[in-house]
Amino acid sequence: MSVKEIIESKVNEALNPELLEVIDESHKHAGHVGARPEGETHFHINMTASMLNGKNRVERQRMIYKILSDELAGPIHALSLSLKGTND
Predict the structure, then answer these.
(1) Closest CA to 62 of 83, 48, 76, 44
(2) Could you tell me the CA-to-CA distances from 77 to 56, 70, 74 in Å, in that order?
(3) Tens of pLDDT, residues 5-45
(4) CA distances (Å), origin 24, targets 38, 53, 87, 88
(5) Verdict on whether the full-model pTM lies above 0.90
(6) Segment 48-67 mean pLDDT
(7) Scanning 5, 35, 45, 75, which has the fewest C-beta atoms within 10 Å of its C-beta?
(8) Are strands 78-84 and 42-48 parallel, antiparallel or unpaired?
């Protein structure tokens, strides 16, 4: 399973988002620190989920970081987030 597929699977299972886009941006960072030739190191997540309602930006980010803690300790070098609740 690719890193992108792992991200999608874990986030879908934990938060059941209404919208989830996981974008591999590794190609933009080729040659930079943390980039691997095979890619799958830099990701962006666009997500809308009712589970984020009532949470501030930091709480939302912490939820994602906790869900993806193993990947952030390993193959993911950088992760950017655009997170919305369904009430936003």
Answers:
(1) 83
(2) 24, 12, 8
(3) 999 999 999 999 999 999 999 867 566 665 555 668 899 99
(4) 12, 26, 27, 25
(5) no
(6) 98
(7) 5
(8) parallel
